[in-house]
Amino acid sequence: RGATTRFIEHHPESQRLHKLSLESLPGGNTRTLLHTAPFPVFMRKGEGSELWDEDGNKYYDLVGELSAGLYGHSHPTLQKVLTETIQNVGLSLGATNIYEQRYASLLCERFGLERVRFTNSGTEANIHCLAAARKFTGRRKIIVFRGAYHGSVLSFGNGIPENNIDQADWVLLQYNNSDGVREAFSQNDDIAAVILEGIQGAGGFISASLKFLQATREESEKAGALMILDEVMTSRLAAGGLKDMLGIRPDLITLGKYLGGGLPFGAFGGRRDIIDVFNPLTPGALAHSGTFQNNTLMLHSGYAGLSEVYTAEVVQSLNAQGDDLRLRLQRVFAGSKFCITGQGSLMCVHATNIGLRAEQITCRDDVAGVEDTELKQLFWLELVNAGFWVQSRGTITLNIAMSAAALNAFVEAVEEFCKRYRSLIVV
Ligand code: PLP
Hints:
Belongs to the class-III pyridoxal-phosphate-dependent aminotransferase family. The protein has 15 helices and 16 strands. The chain is an alpha/beta fold. It folds into two domains: 2-70 and 312-425, Aspartate Aminotransferase, domain 1, CATH 3.90.1150; 76-309, Aspartate Aminotransferase, domain 2 (3-Layer(aba) Sandwich), CATH 3.40.640.10. Strands 4-12-11-10-7-5-6 form a seven-stranded mixed beta sheet, with helices on both faces. A four-stranded mixed beta sheet has the order 1-2-3-15. A three-stranded antiparallel beta sheet has the order 13-14-16.
């Protein structure tokens, strides 16, 4: 109760703005994930790796816009290119433009794709990929995994069927269970594709084992179904994405988040023969439209970010920094209800009643029912009270503006929390 009281005392303006928002937005909210109790913090501005809220409180930003904020706030390269684009190019041209070709060719080269198409979000990229898989194979069913998040209407974590389009066509399986995949293929001859994340992001940054990914690849290939790897979050982990890091060869991948250089973005690509189902020169081609998917701001900012800022060296250093942070937090959490999963710059803090360790969490089913949600809420409140912007669900994604001193301060704050609440966190 003390933590909640302090939170309320520190955020009177956020509380007032929340009440105001309730008058026009359901729950005062337009992104479910950002809804927190007792009310959400209203942020006013960000700079580098720091944020300021409407009450003037300052935070280190460890949310990193759920991985889209890889560049930090107001990166000078992106600011410059965006300003120049507004001044010299215009916002949306309502026509094909050369900036599309330039960015498409960079994405193809970087991620080893034969063809690529842009969308406005990762959700749309996945929807179009599934449409392509169905058109290409002439089949209907899609294998998907519990805990997966492929976008707002492709969400398999909360058990609410209406969150998913095409409810009848999913074959829902346990993540990291290769036998389940083999069985599903042997029992269904109408499978168009398997769609999966190499690390279930929203599901709590749970990594797929290499064996599971390989089995999924082999089984889908044998059955003539496509493998779609959702790299919306994981493409930041290696210069060519997680698939290159692990040596997996999916038929299609989807991209999103930071690749828009701070602007709304999605893309999907891979094998030319599949993506050609959208080729308008082909009779009966699938339509793929979207007013803003070749908007000039995203095409410039995304291109500048990937070509000038997130170079192979920066990919390496950011993810090494993440690995180091996770190791340090693992030490702090030893013997407690907390643990931390993830890879590189993507991670998630879990709190379970039974004190699960990171390596014991292999799928959503491992944590469902044993989560200590009250402890997680306390962790969130106290870190926010201490000036660290973390996500209430436990997600942490690093940005390249974060200094070593900021990360040290974060580890110290977590240590402080664990000392203070020792009696609550021991298993
Ligand atoms: N796929 C994954 C793995 C994601 O994490 C997300 C978003 O968090 C999406 C797809 C959806 O992307 P967007 O929010 O751009 O629609």
